[in-house]
Amino acid sequence: MATRGIPLWPWLDQAADDLPGPERLLLDAARLWQEEAKAGRPPAPALRMLLASADAGAALEPLDALLRLSPWGTAPFACRFCPGIHPAEGGLLLATALAQRGAERESLAIWLRWLPLLGACQALSLGARLAAALRDAGHALREPWAAGGPR
Questions:
Q1: Residue 85: closest CA among 35, 16, 4
Q2: Is residue 119 in some structural domain?
Q3: 36: containing domain
Q4: Exposed, middle or buried, 5 (CB in 10 Å: 0-12/13-18/19+)?
Q5: How many domains does the chain divide into?
Q6: Residue 7 placed within a domain
Q7: Cβ–Cβ < 8 Å for 115, 71
């Protein structure tokens, strides 16, 4: 499966503060997870508070498992207060948005950029569970290929 030609996130030049609520929630959760893990603390308690505040507590388990599986120790997310969107963060946002729309092949192609096949298949399954939990909580990520760019 070719993984070239698929952008990591259609709006990588966008400021993190300009992201819509669902994307910002996922970005903040991933950054918080990384911060807690780097500090040697279990990330789940901090994530639980953040996700519960957005009525998305069901996203905790798949997000935690997905980030534990990920290779982002070598391509880390940005710090919690960084204004931009790191390419690895863009990949997570894009793969999740695609999973919410049932675009499994495209989502798998994103995961294959960082993971071997078995890991990418696990990420695909976890990403689908994460996407469904966010969607069920009312946090639908925007259509990544919609004309007109970010809104």
A1: 16
A2: yes
A3: 16-136
A4: exposed
A5: 1
A6: no
A7: yes
Q: In Å, how far are 14, 83, 122, 150 from 127, measured between CA atoms? A: 23, 25, 8, 22
Question: How far is Cα 42 from Cα 37, in angstroms, rounded to an integer?
Answer: 6
Q: Please tell me the predicted confidence (pLDDT) of residue 3.
A: 55
Cα separation, 79 vs 86, whole angstroms: 10
In a domain, 98, yes or no: yes
Query: Tokens 């300009």 identify what position?
Result: 18
Is 110 inside a domain boundary? yes
CA distance 18 to 119: 31
Cα(132)–Cα(100) distance, rounded to whole angstroms? 6
User: In 1-151, which residue ranges form alpha helices assigned H by DSSP?
Assistant: 21-38, 44-53, 60-69, 87-100, 104-112, 117-136
Q: How far apart are CA 32 and CA 117, in angstroms?
A: 27
- Residue 75 pLDDT exceeds 80: no
Kindly report the pTM of this predicted structure: 0.88
Summarize the confidence of residues 25-40 as an average pLDDT: 93
